[in-house]
């Protein structure tokens, strides 16, 4: 009697343990995926495919005529298709078998299921590559758009247009012989002239800053590819700088002086690389003449510049109006409106 009671308890515990392995809404729900396809847990992928085709022919909705039978067949066909999808996917089958063997790991089962279900199907590396490519293309097209806008602006300005016209005539790029222009309409002649002027400006004009000619080496993809090389070159450059100017105490050359001035402007004035590139040569010459690579002289010059800017701002009528507004009605002021 005691042996029978013990066996009954063991059977009951096994039944409870097995039932806990089936969770509503996960995998095949409260049914066993292997039982749905009528296969063993040791079944191969080929065995599962054979069982699926056999059951699919039996339970396909088109094989049943009455609406009630068709409805029942549709539900059963969906179960079969779901079980087939789970058991033919190696990763899902592995997670499902883990759930059957470890029914007590309730939260772990949920995590594994939804992680697999909602994880991106596309390789993350492909997503990153496509994203970088899109950013690089947009970046390059933006540079090209700015550059073309600058060229169009220069063509419309009389000063640059006349200069480009002179260069085109000197180099024989413009057709001035009226005999050769016969048979062409005014629009065609004008289009040819505009194309020549644009070509001259593109080749001769030194446009700097945010409207400079697009540089393929500045786009994100190329920068990432060249980053190991750039890092190595920076380390070598920095080591050379320390050796020459810290250890050997050499005097700065023009390039080094401009580098120091640029770094001071970036640190104390917020100057960007684009703004630095857009500076005229005479401005850089002025920086060198003032010896602004020396920090004390730069700070003194910066103080004078700030004082001059404040004086100009104080004389501005718009700034005075703004100050009056902030004093009378600005933040923190309370006034009563007209009754």
UniProtKB/TrEMBL annotation:
One of its GO terms (cellular component) is endoplasmic reticulum membrane. The keyword rRNA-binding does not apply. PANTHER family: DNAJ HOMOLOG SUBFAMILY C MEMBER 25 (PTHR44176:SF1). It comes from Lingula anatina. It is found in: Membrane. The keyword Metal-binding does not apply. Residues 32-100 form the J domain. It is a multi-pass membrane protein. Pfam families: DnaJ. SMART domains: DnaJ. Its main location: membrane. It comes from the Eukaryota. Keywords: Chaperone, Membrane, Signal, Transmembrane, Transmembrane helix. The chain crosses the membrane at residues 122-142, 220-239. InterPro entries: DnaJ_domain (IPR001623), DnaJ_domain_CS (IPR018253), DNAJC25-like (IPR044632), J_dom_sf (IPR036869). Residues 1-21 form the signal peptide. This is DnaJ homolog subfamily C member 25 homolog. Belongs to the DNAJC25 family. One of its GO terms (biological process) is protein folding.
């Amino acid at each position: 009697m005691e042996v029978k009671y013990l066996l009954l308890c063991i059977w009951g515990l096994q039944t409870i343990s097995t039932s806990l392995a089936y969770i509503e809404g996960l995998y095949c729900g409260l049914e066993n995926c292997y039982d749905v396809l009528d296969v063993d847990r040791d079944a191969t992928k080929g065995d599962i495919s054979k069982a699926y085709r056999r059951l699919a022919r039996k339970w396909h909705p088109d094989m049943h005529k009455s609406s009630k039978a068709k409805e029942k067949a549709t539900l059963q066909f969906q179960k079969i298709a779901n079980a087939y999808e789970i058991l033919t996917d190696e990763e899902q089958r592995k997670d499902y078998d883990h759930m059957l063997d470890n029914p007590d790991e309730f939260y772990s089962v949920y995590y594994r299921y939804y992680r697999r279900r909602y994880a991106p199907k596309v390789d993350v590396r492909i997503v990153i590559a496509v994203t970088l490519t899109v950013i690089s293309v947009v970046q390059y097209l933006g540079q090209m758009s700015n550059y073309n806008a600058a060229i169009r602006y220069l063509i419309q300005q009389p000063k640059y247009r006349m200069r480009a016209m002179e260069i085109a005539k000197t180099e024989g790029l413009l057709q001035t012989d009226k005999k050769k222009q016969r048979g062409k309409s005014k629009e065609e002649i004008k289009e040819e002239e505009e194309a020549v002027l644009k070509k001259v400006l593109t080749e001769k004009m030194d446009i700097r800053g945010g409207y400079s000619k697009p540089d393929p080496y500045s786009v994100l993809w190329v920068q990432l590819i060249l980053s190991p090389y750039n890092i190595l070159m920076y380390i070598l450059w920095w080591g050379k700088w320390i050796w020459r100017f810290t250890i050997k105490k050499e005097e700065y050359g023009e390039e080094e002086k401009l580098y120091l001035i640029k770094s001071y402007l970036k640190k104390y004035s917020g100057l960007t690389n684009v703004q630095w590139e857009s500076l005229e040569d005479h401005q850089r010459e002025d920086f060198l003449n003032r010896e602004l690579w020396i920090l004390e002289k730069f700070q003194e010059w910066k103080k004078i510049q700030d004082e001059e800017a404040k004086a100009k701002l104080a004389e501005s009528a718009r700034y005075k109006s703004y100050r009056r507004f902030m004093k009378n009605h600005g933040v923190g002021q309370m006034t009563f409106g007209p009754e």
